[in-house]
Design goal:
The structure holds 3 protein chains of 3 kinds.
Chain A: H1 3-27, E1 28-33, H2 42-56, E2 59-64, H3 71-78, E3 86-91, H4 93-96, H5 98-101, E4 113-122, E5 124-128, H6 137-146, E6 152-156, H7 161-173, E7 178-182, H8 185-194, E8 199-203, H9 204-212, E9 217-221, E10 247-254, H10 259-273, H11 276-284, E11 288-289, H12 294-314
Parallel strand pairs in A: 1-2, 1-3, 6-7, 6-8
Antiparallel strand pairs in A: 3-10, 4-10, 4-11, 5-8, 5-9
Helix pairs in contact in A: 2-10, 2-11
Chain B: H1 2-16, H2 19-37, H3 43-50, H4 59-84, H5 96-104, H6 108-137, H7 140-143, H8 146-160, H9 168-183, E1 185-186, E2 193-194, H10 208-224, H11 240-243, H12 247-269, H13 275-289, H14 302-325, H15 331-342, H16 351-354, H17 356-386, H18 392-411, H19 414-432, H20 438-460, H21 467-470, H22 472-507
Antiparallel strand pairs in B: 1-2
Helix pairs in contact in B: 1-17, 2-4, 2-17, 3-4, 4-5, 4-6, 4-14, 4-15, 4-17, 5-6, 6-12, 6-14, 6-17, 8-20, 8-22, 9-20, 10-18, 10-19, 12-13, 12-14, 13-14, 18-19
Chain C: H1 2-28, H2 43-61, H3 85-104, H4 107-119, H5 127-148
Helix pairs in contact in C: 1-2, 3-4, 4-5
Classes of the chains: A alpha/beta, B mainly alpha, C mainly alpha.
């Protein structure tokens, strides 16, 4: 083998290699979920990937990239190849609240990402433990006025909706409510059940099982309308408070992804999201499947950002 | 009540013994065992990786397998701690303290044997507790609120400050330094990022695995390379009876195992207080109640038996709040609940009633899995001990790699590997200055929980410090703290008077 | 003689703690201290920093005065001191090689480089033995960690 052969052979090998990886990249869709397996939306993105695989013959995998409240995984998608095959599946916080909450965010939620579709929505709930015995917001307000030193509400972390919603309730009702942050919903829930705090505020889905078992009592949900899973629990609005806010899960692509690639992905995803199997799965974890156009998701993201920014700033929770 | 339990258990065995389920239980404990032996590969990372693979499985089989990984890992975890002084698995870090000296004395096999005894007893106790008492004692968690947890952590920190050999002053300094390292990351109460120096990779804090393996792994290799004399010659001609604990040694281990088991079971019921904390508290307790505390750190059987038993009983006990309340006590249990959700089982207080096949099948599989593990591991002791005949010059590069990949796999972060290296370098400096790494781990584990609960308790009590003494359980722990400190001071005054004079005459 | 070494060592030991306390304390002052009823993120770091620095002072003050019992460290059989530049560089570079190659090459090259470089740190290990050891560990890693336990790192980036 002389030198020229060697070079040609090498070049061929390089071509073969790159060709192979390009081919692999074309068919493999990689969802990045920026939290640990088994947490929150992990189940649903896996069902989604599974549906894409079964129904549309695409191969799709889910990579968990947990860390720093999701910031690490989101940053990874920002730097991924914009070929439409790496997608971010994230709850709204990273795309809507973080730009206000964190000063040194390693990504720009608007400039670095292109929206693909909103997948699911969910509500938040405020529940009372045995301490107050309140059965409605009105009863709670009375109790809090009589017991101003016991107005503690537990929540998983600060600066997110489970924090902002009860804060607004307290301001509107004229009662004193102190936010106590826990590491996740589980300890916050235990605290309310044990009577360490009077209240717990968290995603509704995390509270339903204990509510049905009678360990806590849901006082209000945060949606525009009542949650389909709890038709007998009124919303904040029904009880006379101008408080409303829902969360969602959305799919995003790196900003430079071509428009037609996004359109193609959107079509496939919306089809999967609208399938009965996905809807059923969403129901089983108390979420609601939606499936929007990229433009709609972009509008929702922008509206939510503008809506919560002043609230976060007023609460003194903006990044310093 | 008792009889229905037995009937349910019989049904559970039916479920667990179905070939399909039995197979997955076996796979789970085997993977767990393997993961436990490999330095750095944590249970959490193994489960995180394997959880998605259970997606297509039946729920019962998936739960049995994942649970098997949890308790299976504890069986493998002690091996590297005892034989190589390498805490491959955080709950077993404290086992290094007396396990490795035993190995140096040629009793590595014995230490592993004692570990097995502790494992069997601790696990059996934990499972029995879950079978008969789960619905009642799950509520114990409710009595442990911020003030109680805070006082308990303080007790652990005080008792543990005697973990160190050598200078007590340096031991306390290391505990405080460990607490400081534990503060790195996002402050739960205010969401402020502390000591992250703008790196959001540090926002979740330093990984316990990174700290343990940096201090006990990399730092030790830096000290050991080209320096370690071949000590392990005694292990080349090992007979089986050298590995069996003698009657006297079994007797020595019996009460520590019992006490360790009780500590572990108590810790498992307190939310967020898992096997790592349990093992440290069990060791500290054992050293406190021992008639020969001076033997600790130099190969005390009790120093291996108690923490090992506590780890196993705590791991089994951890399942109680998870299964009977639907509230996970720690990150590992949160993953298990995630697995349940993936399989369309809603965890919650009604799980036992609604899914008896899962609850009782799980309990039955605990018995089966632990039995498999014992039969698997007892004969393997002889094989593991052979590990000691591998020359150090092959051992340390291999272990170094396992540390790197293990730390990486914990949360898929190469940044953490760099952190481990930095900790290793600084840890080496500390070793040269004769600081002991063990109290640092203790401070790291207990410190953040102390701070979090101290601040929370005060916030809830509106700044009223009497909350810590008004609450009976908290007051009880604080009383023990006072007693500990008092005894220490009295003993110190008595002891130092004479020896100081003696020492000064000896040296001047 | 021994006493002089001990005193010197304790002197440095205390110094390191004072330094740690000072740096950590300085950073702590940039956080909010809060009040007793609502403690800020700065309170504990400051208390700990002061405590650590104070203990450092105590260690320096007590340097060599009361020689504690001889510490039988976990590696008591190792020589007491031993500046071993070759070993240190090898271990350090081994980990660095792992980080770099895991990022750009994948698990197989990272494993091989890490073990090979680290093994070269021992004077009795030649490059052949080191390479053999590295190869063995690499095979184990690929089979057990990558294929068996599915650690989320490509075996060879771009290929698998």
């Amino acid at each position: 083998m002389d030198r020229r052969d060697f070079i040609i052979g090498g070049a061929a090998a390089v071509c073969a290699f790159s060709g192979r990886s390009a081919l692999a990249a074309e068919t493999l869709i990689r969802f990045i979920y920026p939290y640990a397996p088994g947490s929150g939306g992990d189940v649903l993105v896996r069902v989604l990937a599974d549906d894409l695989q079964k129904k549309l013959g695409l191969s799709a995998i889910v990579d968990n990239k947990p860390g720093a409240d999701g910031r690490i995984g989101v940053r990874e998608v920002k730097h991924a190849d914009p070929d439409g095959n790496t997608l971010l599946f994230t709850p709204f916080g990273t795309m809507v609240l973080f730009p206000t909450v964190f000063k040194n965010l390693p990504y720009d939620a608007f400039a670095d990402f292109a929206p693909v579709t909103q997948a699911l929505t969910f509500d938040f709930g405020l529940a009372a433990g045995p301490m107050s015995g309140a059965k409605s917001l009105a009863e709670l307000t009375d109790w809090l006025k009589k017991n101003p030193d016991k107005g503690n509400v537990g929540m998983p972390g600060l600066g997110a909706l489970p924090h902002l919603l009860p804060l607004k309730y307290a301001a509107d009702a004229g009662v004193k409510l102190q936010a106590i942050a826990y590491k996740g919903t589980a300890p916050a829930l235990t605290a309310a059940m044990a009577g360490e705090t009077a209240l717990v505020s968290a995603p509704l889905a995390d509270l339903i099982a204990q509510h049905k078992a009678g360990a806590i009592r849901l006082l209000a949900t945060s949606g525009k309308t009542r949650s389909p899973y709890l038709p007998d629990v009124p919303t904040y609005g029904e009880q006379g408070f101008n408080i409303e806010g829902s969360g969602w899960y959305g799919v995003f692509a790196p900003a430079k992804t071509p428009r037609d690639a996004i359109a193609k992905m959107n079509k496939a995803l919306v089809e999967a999201i609208h399938s009965d199997s996905f809807k059923d799965r969403a129901k089983s974890v108390f979420l609601t499947a939606t499936g929007t156009s990229p433009e709609e998701l972009g509008a929702i993201q922008k509206a939510d950002y503008e809506r919560w920014k002043p609230v976060i700033e007023a609460a003194g929770l903006a990044g310093k | 009540m008792l009889w229905t339990s037995f009937a349910d258990l019989a049904h559970g065995f039916e479920v667990a013994l179905q070939p399909h389920n039995l197979l997955y239980c076996l796979i789970g404990v085997l993977i767990g065992n393997l993961v436990g032996v490999l330095p750095g590969m944590g249970v959490l990372s193994a489960v995180s990786i394997l959880l998605p693979l259970t997606f297509g499985m039946k729920p019962v089989a998936a739960i049995l397998m994942i649970s098997g990984i949890f308790y299976g890992a504890q069986y493998g975890g002690a091996i590297c701690s005892i034989l190589l002084n390498l805490p491959s698995h955080p709950p077993h870090a404290v086992t290094c303290l007396d396990g490795y000296p035993l190995t140096q004395q040629g009793k590595g096999g014995v230490a592993l044997g004692v570990t097995m005894m502790g494992a069997v007893f601790g696990a059996a106790f934990g499972i029995l507790q879950m079978m008969f008492l789960a619905p009642y004692i799950a509520k114990v968690a409710f009595s442990f609120q911020a003030a109680e947890i805070c006082s308990l952590m303080l007790l652990g920190l005080l008792a543990g400050s005697t973990l160190a050999k050598g200078s007590p002053l340096k031991g306390v300094a290391m505990t405080a330094f460990g607490m400081l390292l534990g503060l790195v990351g996002t402050d739960t109460a205010t969401s402020v990022e502390r000591y992250t120096f703008g790196r959001f990779e540090l926002a979740d804090g330093i990984e316990l695995v990174a700290l343990a393996l940096g201090l006990f792994g990399i730092a030790e290799f830096l000290r050991g390379v080209n320096n370690v004399a071949p000590v392990n010659t005694g292990y080349t001609k090992l007979r089986f009876r050298d590995m069996r604990p003698s009657k006297a040694e079994m007797k020595e281990a019996a009460f520590p195992i019992l006490r360790g088991t009780l500590v572990g079971s108590l810790c498992s019921l307190i939310p967020g207080t898992g096997p790592v904390i349990a093992s440290f508290i069990a060791y500290a307790t054992e050293k406190k109640v021992s008639k020969t505390p001076e033997k600790f750190g130099h190969g005390a059987i009790a120093g291996v038996a108690a923490p090992e038993a506590s780890t196993h009983s705590s791991i089994q006990g951890d399942f109680i709040p998870t299964m009977s309340l639907g509230i996970p006590g720690d990150a590992a249990m949160a993953l298990l609940l995630g697995a349940l959700i993936i399989h369309n089982v809603t965890p919650g207080p009604r799980l036992i009633v609604e899914h008896p096949d899962i609850f009782w099948g799980l309990i039955a599989s605990f018995w089966i899995g632990n039995l498999i593990l014992v039969f698997l591991n007892v004969p393997m002791i002889g094989v593991w001990v052979r590990l000691l005949t591998v020359p150090y010059r092959y051992l340390y590069p291999t272990a170094l790699f396992f540390i790197c990949i293990g730390v990486f796999a914990t949360r898929n972060s190469l940044f953490d590997v760099g952190v481990t290296l930095a900790i290793g370098l600084f840890g080496y400096l500390l070793l040269l200055l004769r600081f002991e790494p063990a109290p640092m781990l203790l401070g790291f584990v207990l410190g953040p929980r102390f701070e979090e609960n101290f601040r929370r308790a005060l916030k809830i009590a509106q700044g009223d410090l009497t909350t810590f003494v008004d609450r009976p359980i908290s007051a009880f722990f604080l009383a023990i703290c006072l007693l500990l400190v008092g005894v220490q001071i009295v003993a110190r005054i008595r002891k130092t008077r004479a020896p100081v004079r003696l020492a000064s005459t000896a040296f001047d | 003689m021994l006493r002089a070494i001990d005193r010197q060592r304790d002197f440095y030991a205390g110094g390191v703690m004072i330094l740690v306390g000072a740096v950590a304390g300085y950073v702590a002052t940039t956080y909010d201290l809060g009040s007793l009823a609502d403690m800020g993120p700065g309170f504990f770091p400051l208390v700990l920093s002061v405590l650590i620095a104070g203990l450092g002072v105590a260690i320096v003050a007590g340097a060599g005065r009361a020689p504690g019992p001889e510490v039988a460290g976990p590696m008591a059989h190792a020589h007491r001191t031993g500046a071993d530049l070759r070993g240190w560089i090898a271990i350090f570079s081994g980990v660095v090689a792992f980080i770099v190659l895991a990022n750009y090459g994948g698990m197989a090259p990272a494993t091989f480089a890490c073990v090979f470089v680290a093994a070269m740190g021992d004077r009795r290990n030649g490059w052949k033995i080191s390479a053999l050891l590295a190869l063995g560990v690499t095979i184990f890693a690929v089979l057990v960690l990558a294929l068996g336990l599915r650690v989320q790192m490509p075996i060879l980036k771009g290929w698998f």
